[in-house]
Specification:
This is Calponin-homology (CH) domain-containing protein. It is built from 26 helices and two strands. The chain has 549 residues and is an all-alpha fold.
């Protein structure tokens, strides 16, 4: 009856009218042969223009990018120029330096196969820094699918803009603490929340009553931006808030404000219209770039504080979670997992159906929030025991309180279970996949490939020079390794060089490797296990697809 009543009204006609009236949105037809007739994907012109301009600025001095840049002011050639994967790889390194070993990028003889290798390298590397690439494959990049390319670009750019907004890189952020807060409270804030506090800190210093709570409605009149720019810009640049604020037309005021921003080289991401329309994504990027260039935060002279930087292990786990698309997004491992919700998403990915969502509290009552979060965490531990995790001495309270040691212990077991679950799916479900099976497979593959390398376990010290992993990659993808670039591994520098090459070449082969080069050199048993497991999964997938090494 409800369906019949709705169908008899004009909702459908009204809806079509609304969606056809969107401006600055290009609708593209379905791009796969399987697309249902009428399928469309939307591309925002302002995003296209902003990302093209950012790439022009970020990669202007890179000689390998000279033949692609500058991208046109409209951004129309953005997709064609990212087709061979080189710009994507370069942008990833710009956002998170040294993610990709430049020696792994194919820069010449760019056949469709060598472009596909670059695409794999870019996608697997993007995943390793926390990008969610679940719906993006190398074929999508080869076909230059605009909505997918823009989605990937935004994730990479966003990570680069926000990655340094923390106390370790900017001790002066301590100035943003409110009464009764500690540095630990600042870690619990997302980068966006920190940016809003930063803007308000400078508005307060400017002696004005204006404050912002978001990057949409509160910045449309450019007033906050005008005062912010005057506060953070070096005096010799002559940035002033007066001229823009004397203009009453908001779009013209935004243009004058951006001209002031241009005096300090920060006219990026937004156009006047993006400001007046309150485009959240681009305005947040604009402010993040201002912060990165001119934070204007001096730490208090009497400050005595030991800033604990995020460890490699914590960063790897956080990036792994975010690459799986968990919500909410994980910024700080300990506070963002305290309500248990991210754990449930991970359990559901590893063992679909294991979570009884009726037992999960997803919306919290303000009066009972602490009790409800603890209830969730108790269920997290119960699920871990059901999955046969080793959780001796771990209670829901430990997870809820963000106990570092116990949180890391549980997260590692989740990551390990995820890696092994992929292998089991490829092997047929009932097969026994454990550490011994992975070691046996790797040694057999090395022997089959005529390599002298072998190892006894994931803590084998001979793995530190990276050569065993490099040899294994060569057995999986014949001819991919350039042995002229492989060192003997006699010194720490040579070991690190090999480790960087091994990680990037594994990703280039299509392995979902999250580990870092340092993990190989230091022979970190847990992370090395994941490298071999991911290579085994890649080999099994190749064989199932009928590929040859």
């Amino acid at each position: 009856q409800i369906y019949a009543d709705l169908k008899s009204t004009d909702h459908g006609i009204h809806w079509k009218t609304v969606i056809k009236s969107r401006k600055n949105v290009e609708s593209l037809g379905g791009l796969s042969q399987a697309s249902v007739e009428g399928t469309t994907h939307s591309v925002k012109k302002e995003d296209q223009l902003a990302f093209a301009d950012w790439i022009n600025r970020a990669l202007a001095d890179d000689p390998d990018c000279a033949k692609y840049l500058p991208l046109s002011s409209s951004g129309e050639d953005l997709y064609k120029n990212t087709q061979d994967g080189i710009l994507l790889c370069k942008l990833i390194n710009k956002s998170v330096p040294d993610t990709i070993d430049e020696r792994a990028i194919n820069k010449t003889n760019l056949s469709i196969y060598r472009r596909a290798e670059n695409h794999n390298l870019a996608l697997m590397s993007a995943q390793s820094i926390g990008c969610n690439i679940v719906n993006i494959g190398d074929d999508d990049l080869e076909k230059c699918k605009p909505h997918l390319v823009l989605g990937l670009l935004w994730q990479v750019i966003r990570i680069g803009l926000l990655s340094d907004i923390n106390l370790a890189n900017h001790p002066g952020l301590i100035n943003l603490l409110e009464d009764g807060e500690t540095p630990e409270d600042l870690k619990k804030l997302s980068p966006e929340q920190i940016l809003i506090r930063w803007v308000n800190y400078h508005l307060r210093n400017a002696g004005v009553d204006r404050r912002i709570r978001n990057f949409q409605e509160d910045i449309k009149d450019s007033e906050a931006y005008c005062y912010l720019l005057e506060q953070i810009a070096p005096r010799e640049n002559g940035v002033m808030s007066g001229p823009p604020l004397s203009e009453h037309n908001l779009e013209q005021r935004a243009e004058l404000m951006l001209q002031e921003a241009d005096k300090i080289g920060c006219r990026s991401f937004v156009s006047p219209k993006d400001v007046t329309s309150g485009n959240y994504k681009l305005n947040m990027a604009f402010v993040a770039n201002l912060f990165n260039q001119y934070p204007a935060l001096e730490p208090p002279e009497d400050m005595e504080m030991d800033v604990v930087e995020e460890t490699r292990e914590e960063k790897t786990y956080r990036n792994w979670m975010n690459s799986l698309g968990v919500q909410p997004y994980v910024h700080y491992l300990y506070s963002d997992l305290q309500d248990g919700l991210v754990y449930f998403k991970l359990y559901d990915i590893i063992r679909p159906g294991v979570v009884n969502w009726k037992k999960v509290i997803q919306k919290f009552n303000k009066l009972k929030i602490n009790f409800e979060k603890l209830e969730n965490c108790n269920y997290v531990v119960a699920l871990g025991k059901e999955c046969k995790f080793s959780l001796v001495g771990i209670s829901g309270a430990d997870i809820n309180e963000g106990n570092p040691t116990l949180t890391l212990g549980l997260v590692w077991q989740l990551m390990r279970a995820y890696t092994l679950s992929i292998l089991r799916q490829l092997a047929g479900g009932d097969s026994l996949i454990n550490d011994a099976a992975i070691i046996e497979w790797a040694n057999a593959k090395l022997k089959e490939g005529g390599k002298k390398s072998s190892f006894s376990g994931f803590n084998d010290s001979t793995l530190s020079d990276g050569r065993t992993i490099i040899d294994l990659i060569d057995c999986i993808r014949r001819g991919m390794i350039n042995y002229d670039l492989v060192k003997d591994g006699a010194s720490e520098e040579e070991k690190m060089s090999n480790a960087k090459y091994a990680i990037s070449m594994a990703r280039k082969a299509g392995a979902k490797v999250y580990a870092l080069p340092e993990d190989i050199v230091d022979v970190k048993q847990k992370m090395i296990m994941t490298i071999f497991a991911c290579l085994m999964a890649r080999d099994m997938r190749s064989q199932q697809n009928g590929e040859t090494s």
